[in-house]
Amino acid sequence: MSMESAIAEASIKQNLEQFLLVLSVSLTVATISRLFSWFRQIPYTLLLVIVGLGLAFIDIRLVNLSPELILEIFLPPLLFEAAWNIRWRDLKQNWFPVILFAIFGVVISVVGIAFALSKFTILPLSTALLVGASLSATDPVSVVALFRELGASKRLTTLMEGESLFNDGVAVVAFTLLLGIPLGTQTFSLPNTIASFFAFVGIGVGLGCIIGFGISYLTQRFDIPLVEQSLTLVSAYGTYLVTEELGGSGVIGVVTVGIILGNFGSRIGMNPRTRLLVSEFWEFLAFFVNSIVFLLIGDQIQFSNLDRDFIDDVNLILVAIAAVVVTRIVVIFGLGAISNIFIKNKINLREQTILWWGGLRGSVSIALALSVPVAISGRIEVIEIVFGVVLFTLLIQGLTTKSFLQTLDLIGDQPLRQEYSELLARRVALRRVIDYLIKLDDSPEIDSEFYRYEKELVKGQLKSVEEAITKMQQENPPLRSLDMEQLREQLLDIEADTYAELIRSGRLSNNLSPLLTEIIAKASEN
After folding, report:
1. How many domains are there within the chain?
2. Do 94 and 192 share a domain, yes or no?
3. Which of 157, 218, 173, 181 is nearest to 401 (CA)?
4. Which domain holds residue 504?
């Protein structure tokens, strides 16, 4: 074996061992955080940062990824999963404040954070702009999970998710445009920056639509869950790489593809079981990528230079934290007031307060900081500042959001609605069992006494479930809205599945646009 082959084999072995170490540590920590009740009170991402710091402190380095690969590896699954799960109907009803927060909010955050850092610290403006772009991306994963657990309103959840999804894309575009300034490859020009921004976004949206709708119609031609699941993964990474290669924003392309496949493609081209499998696949993938990213940020802190560098950077971190909190106030309360002028369904002060305090920074901010090229002299400062701010938002804001929700009386009736939804599901299942038993009525293979016994047993259980449903409806009339929501979802599924079945059988050559969606939307407006 030649010397070059031996070195290459040793390098592959070392990289594989590092990857397996990251995989084992991240999933172990994340799993433990979900198993024990005490740990469930703490965002698992915070635990991963602490473990990463601990490993770095004893000088165990997990993995050495080049900055250029960070965004390509970590961003597509994080953004696709968020886009896949957001509901277009809910987003469309709140599009104006979401766009305000996502676009103008990012501009305010970038400028405000960069101005504060360059004014009150020794950090150069070019580096401060990168910090501002990194920290302008919100990532309220744990907050949204808390909203759903405690029953916060669907609108509040949609505003938080929608803003996070789109401002992630805008923040990455801003970061990419500003990256050339400290590298010396370009100078800042407002007209050129605006033109580049719209070109980036336009190419990303265009390619995202082409790929998203193309895959949607493709999956309508067959019903193979593993292939359809694989296509979503290919679409996420493929869209990112192709869009970046053609000069657009891969992030915007991935977000566009995710929204289309999650709201259109999954409805016309996937049966309900396949949609569930794909959703669970992406939930795990996002969980895994989040785990690795938060572990790596702790791993990047250089404790060997702690006395000389990190202590001096405490001032930078404190100024950045103050700037993040203040700019968030301007974004939510300022732009929220503007939004309330133009929309009927106002965002009240209580909702604005929780949107402000719940604007955590997380995996996207970390990925951007880690992607800063080594050639930039302030790279370590950018990583440490972002690390400090993320740690603050997770430790302080993340752990106190529940108290804010309780104090502001924004906790809803989610446990009650969950119990009611489970009863509805049991009623549907038991009715199907009875329908199946009726079909076996004349079957000679089954003993008639046993058949009657089983049938009466199921009917008795169904009666108990229906009585419980009636009681809950009488005590809580608003719960009836869940019946209507589930019925509408079933009707939409039936229509989409029918079109897909006709196309697969060759009886329909072109897909028909969903008719019930338009009917339901018009009925809701009236």
Report:
1. 2
2. yes
3. 157
4. 414-525
